[in-house]
Amino acid sequence: MIGIVIVSHSKQLALGVRELAAQMVQDQVPMAVAAGIEDPENPLGTDPIQVYEAIASVFSDDGVLVLMDLGSALLSAEMAIEFLSEAQQQKVHLCEAPLVEGAIAAVVAAASGRDIHQVMAEARGALQAKATQLGVVSKPLSVVTSTTTNIESPTPEIRLIMSNRLGLHARPAAQFVATVARFKSQILVQNLTRNTELVRGDSINQVTTLGVRQGHELVITATGSDANEALAALQALFANNFGEDNVALNSPPAFHHEITPATHGELLGIAASSGVAIAPVVHYQPTQIHITQHHVEDVEAEWQRVQAVIHIARQEIQAVFSQASIQIGDAEAAIFDAQLLFLEDPVLLEAVKERILEHHLNAEAAWQAVVDEVATSYHTLEDSYLQERVDDVVDVGQRVLRLLAGNAPAKVHLQEPAILVATDLTPSDTAGLDPTKVVGICTTSGSATSHSAIIARTLGIPAVLGVDAQVLHLADGTLMALDGESGKAWVEPESHILDLLAAKQSAWQTAQQEARATAHQPAITRDGRQVSVFANIGSISDVQVAVASGAQGVGLLRTEFLYLDRTNAPTEQEQLAVYQAIAQVLDNRPLIIRTLDVGGDKPLPYLKVGLREANPFLGWRGIRFCLDHLDLFKTQLRAILRASVGHQIKIMLPMIATVTEVRAAKVILGEVQAELNQAGISFDAAMKVGIMVEVPSAVAIADQLATEVDFFSIGTNDLSQYTMASDRTNPRVANLVDALHPAVLRMVQQTIQTAHAAGISVGLCGELAADTLATPILLGLGLDELSVNPQSIPRLKQAIARLSIVECEAIVASALQQDSAVHVRELISTSITPPA
Prior knowledge:
Blueprint: E1 3-8, H1 11-24, E2 31-35, H2 48-58, E3 64-68, H3 72-82, H4 86-89, E4 92-95, H5 99-111, H6 116-124, H7 126-134, E5 157-161, H8 170-180, E6 186-191, E7 199-200, H9 204-208, E8 217-223, H10 227-239, E9 266-268, E10 270-273, E11 276-283, H11 299-328, H12 330-333, H13 335-343, H14 346-359, H15 363-379, H16 384-387, H17 390-405, E12 418-422, H18 427-431, E13 438-443, H19 451-459, E14 463-465, E15 479-483, E16 488-491, H20 495-519, E17 523-524, E18 530-537, H21 540-548, E19 554-558, H22 572-586, E20 591-594, H23 623-627, H24 630-643, E21 649-653, H25 659-678, E22 689-693, H26 696-700, H27 702-706, E23 711-714, H28 716-723, H29 742-757, E24 761-764, H30 775-781, E25 785-788, H31 793-801, H32 805-815, H33 821-831
Helix pairs in contact: 1-5, 2-3, 5-6, 8-10, 8-13, 11-13, 11-14, 11-17, 13-17, 14-15, 15-17, 20-31, 21-22, 22-24, 24-25, 28-29, 30-32
């Protein structure tokens, strides 16, 4: 296949171009980068030897296309060719096409099997294609002005009816765009019901602003080599209802009008999250970012600055997503998936770049102008629900703007419980709130269906939104009461109002305490089998929620949160303090600490991981990464061992595929223990060591692994994708990644039977454990413990109490003989009615 080489003065720019181009073709085309020089003081430049090595790394008899930016890049490329043999020189072609657009056009053409001359022609015509797609600058972002079709060959198209309850809202829109991005074809989509223009299917903003609601008809066209495959994948998305049901999950509370007229000091608002709060107010004021527009000369450097900041913003949002997944669950956390796609929206990025390169605008002004334009396109929609998605646009826009301006993020630090008063809260703001300190939310804008309101409900924080702006003038410390069920708030409430609300709050707290009391009971089936229910956590605040929810221990402490959102690895002392604090809250309940599970698809920016991996899920991650970073690994093991004194702490190793890996890790653990002994530092010498079973090879050699460790914990998320050979992040095959598929269930059964034969326990800490539909299967398979997100614990315990092992084993026997996950789900549904 044809190879592509990108030569640039800026290494960061070249890597960004390569990443963007690679995503267009799923890494099908060999690409190499020759960019920058090894000079910390002045890293911009090009090196002929580096160019030569890059050409050699992708050389093919089909040809090599070299794309360059200005100045010495061309000279370096010409010089590099001289190092090649005469025969090789004939195969290498220098191309004057624009770097970014040319690279994208070239890789798409190369991936479709065109020859070197056709690939060069595509690269050279890249700007023309871009102009055709974008039209004149004054056109709104949400419109594709023209498309090219082959008159002799009609463009394939499909017509679909949207059945999803809320239409193409953030999560389905994100899935739609992610699916489109997997294909080379140009996908265009039109809302026939609203008679919109055709828009690009790879743009999250264009797709969302189509205003697609339930019952709307869409026409989707595809032009390109894989057009039919692309349309089939999109059709499957619609047929599967984007993986969602049409039940109103986590819906806003219904209005109740006990007191209709407004009394003295009473504010009428929108009921957004149930519950009563009585506390002093504290104002939340986000960091104000002041933008000034000015002319810039070095436009390339300015565009690189935008790209660098977007990369940081992406890491920040991924960290929010990871934390939100633990705290509020995967469904609500998926809100942040759409925010990530916003950062990758090609239409938006091209518009920002055009303002910088063509109009010489500074990055802040260019970014703000485009974000404002996108926000306006949302505001003009007739659909009120979709209008509210502008909150996510503003959230991401402000994050990037803050990073460009060099401002620190605004934080909510409360010493005592308070009601937070603000104009509005972004989804990111809300996801970061501590429910033990923020006992209520009162804002002057927002709605019950906003993403911020959804997150507040999930966190259990009472909220009244859209109250009169006079609330913004209250002094901090002013007593406020609010009722998130009726949508009312009171400033310095009178005694009779306080008495009514206190009674309502007391009744609500009593109901919650009764639920918690039930949750704190052991999980015992109808026929007397007790099952341990543990929590998956990722912070100190999570463990407090877990204990309050009835967790009998922690089955998985994800230690990655200690390593994220920082410029260097956490020290031994930092880790020790966190592990001890978590163990202290658990009060001698078991605590299983998983050692660092990064690398591959979860990189740490401050660790050099070498070349980008074509398939990170099959790459350098988990225990493989730690065994190659012994300083990092030993530091963590020392901290865990030191924290083990007086606590029930266990170590768990991730991504184990071989016995050799376990033995190597145990040798290192032994070395650390010897060092601590020599230094006279105490630790639990009998601390148990276990492994994650998430790789099929671990299942196959479970008998050998069981002799090396004290327990297994099955990670069904990874085990499912590895068993089914399907990337769970790829919408085209994600439907195959179902932990209830009989193939996966047989792997789980084999692991449990082998472990029990060897006398060791088995837990399960994947998402499957939180699905109460799957509870009969997991009990019937014989698992000793289940570990779930804290908020799922009460429901899981209730589900266990309604079942008997005898009936569960009968369901499993039948489930293992089914031929699909769909049939397994149907079997469970007809056998047992799951708890509400």
